[in-house]
Amino acid sequence: MGILLTVHISYHQKKFRDVFVDSVTKNPILSYNEVKLEFPVILIDLRFLRSLPKKRWDPNEDNIKIAVHIRDGDKLPQEYLQRYEIVYYEQPLNKSYLLFQDEVTRIIPNISLESYGNLSIPQDVEQFAKFWERSEIRRCIGLEIERSQMKPYLPVKKTLQNMILLQEYLISLNVYPFLFGGTLLGWFRECGIIPHTKDIDFAAFIEEYKPEVLEELQKNKKLFLWRVLGKPSDFFEFTLKPLDRGEPLMDLFWLFSSKNESWTGGLKGDDGTKYKYTYPRIRKICACDFLGHLFWVPCDLVAFLSMEYGPKWYLDYPTSEFIWYKSHYNIKMNGKLNSKELKELQKYYK
Question: Looking at the UniProt record for this protein, which Gene Ontology cellular component terms does it annotate, in alphabetical order (predicted)?
């Protein structure tokens, strides 16, 4: 039988005492003793959250990390400051995320919480942990790029909606995609979508892939899986479209890693030539604000973009002059498929 957490609120010496108890043994798991929670807090201490079903906690022994809304910062009693590690948070206006002022600035997607009086706990602790470990914020530099044609090829509003839809759907499958390729370049360099780009690029770690991901994408009713290239043991790429089959076309590259590098593959469909794109080993993922919404990005942005686009990555090259199998700085041929392999590893869906 699983352990359920319940909250008992009792009146004691004119103060409320919040106690979490193990519903089977009735033993306290968490007690705030005489500390009254006079305003909302979110418990964000991963070490403690992960131990909740198993272990009791004495608040006098542990320096638990809690998040307090920035509006309540000046109301904190001294005992809070002594007992807890305080992180201030807010929900920025018209944004789809929470912002935390930790030792670094962090942003995470809006999360579901279970509330016990003024104490809230992430409903899905492991998902919260995934969000938190990739929450350190990175900011775009916003260069002004002079172009003869500024009208975007991709419809920005629809493109953003479908990017959000794909990201949310992949998260539901325990896949955490991040901006990649020209989409990453456009966000970092000019804080948006490159006007002449013709598709959207995401990547995800191959370790997050399982067969159920492809099965779900094949039958989902939110996006259309148009193409699958390769296989999970080699290069692997999905291409998706909106249900109306229009723009934007979105590529999801599965990223492989060795000791010192990360890489993804490409396939020239007319002759079976395979390509390999090599990057610095991606060891950490960060978060960014992309047109008001949270997306993830590699943390070491300049090193990543320099390897792919060269030392002058900040200069603009028209998409019409950029050839995907020639123009990248980090590309090399990686073998060739025969006709049978090409048929098996290049699948289109209707």
Answer: membrane
Nearest to 196, CA basis, from 325, 320, 309: 320
Map residue 9 onto helix, strand or coil: strand
Helix axes 301-309, 181-190, angle to 10 degrees: 120
Is the peptide bond between 248 and the residue preceding it cis, with omega within 30 degrees of 0? yes
With beta carbons less than 8 A apart as the criterion, state whether 5 and 29 touch.
yes
Short-list 323, 294, 42, 37, CA closest to 179? 294
pLDDT of residue 98: 98
CA distances from 138 to 175, 259, 287 (A): 21, 25, 6
**Dihedral of alpha carbons 186, 190, 193, 195, sign:** negative
Which region, left, alpha or beta, applies to residue 165 given φ > 0 means left and ψ of -120 to 50 means alpha?
A: alpha
| DSSP string over 190-214 | HSS--TT--EEEEEEEGGG--HHHH
**β-pairing verdict for 261-268 and 273-280:** antiparallel
Q: List pLDDT tens digits, range 210-257.
A: 999 999 999 999 999 999 999 999 999 999 999 999 999 999 999 999
CA distance 18 to 29: 11
Percentage of residues in the chain with pLDDT exceeding 70? 87
Looking at the whole model, is its pTM more than 0.85?
A: yes
Q: Which residue bears the tokens 């007690």?
A: 31
| Long-range Cβ contacts of 340-344 (<8 Å, 24+ apart) | 341/272, 342/269, 342/272
Distance CA(39)–CA(2), nearest Å, equals 31
